[in-house]
Amino acid sequence: MSAVVLDAAAALAWCFADGPGATGDALLDRVARDGAVVPAVWHVELAKLLLAAERDARMTAAQVSSVVDSVGRLPISIEGVATPRHWNDALHLARQHGLAVHEACYLDLAMRRRLPLATPVVELQRAARDSGVDLIEL
Q1: With bands split at pLDDT 50, 70 and 90, how would you rate the model's confidence at 95?
Q2: By the 8 A CB rule, do 135 and 128 touch?
Q3: pTM listed for this prediction
């Protein structure tokens, strides 16, 4: 198998008992084995989602710290700073598919690297299908 482009919402789903179940477990195993590639915005987005879960009392601060440590041990490669061309491509994809720009960054990365995209975000799944990107649905 190959690495995957992993969006932050897919990673966050691993943290909750009501998460993606067997599909999510298989994705976690795949990332541990084959790695993942993420855009530079990934860590900021994941931190935002974790803090929101803590503020909503879905996680404690200790659980958030544990998740950060666990995710930090996974073989996740961060794509370096995007070039102006990447920004333009992401903006184009966001306009074309009605996505937020950070969502379009995942789609752009998957398209450029020809890697499957793992996301639970319905709009991003639809855009991936429309763009011919292999999809790992959660």
Answers
A1: very high
A2: yes
A3: 0.89
